[in-house]
Amino acid sequence: MAGPIRVIVHPPSPTGGRRVRVDGEILGLAHNLADVAEFLRRAGLDIEPSDVARAPWIDWRGAGPDTWGPDPTV
Length: 74
Known about the structure:
Layout lengths: L6 E3 L8 E5 L2 E6 L2 H10 L6 H4 L5 E3 L14
Parallel strand pairs: 1-4
Antiparallel strand pairs: 1-2, 2-3
């Protein structure tokens, strides 16, 4: 492997959920931490849902791991 795996959880979409991207590939639209863990498992990364929120190698964009719905101020 050329470097560390890059995991990005994008900001919540206007309809809810967050895109999950690993090394540039979108894995799906997650609606909770368990969804993120499942997408990562399918990509070959074994992580428990309870560990997703504090994994230092996951980049949470636009909001932290507790936010999944659309922005109520929009």
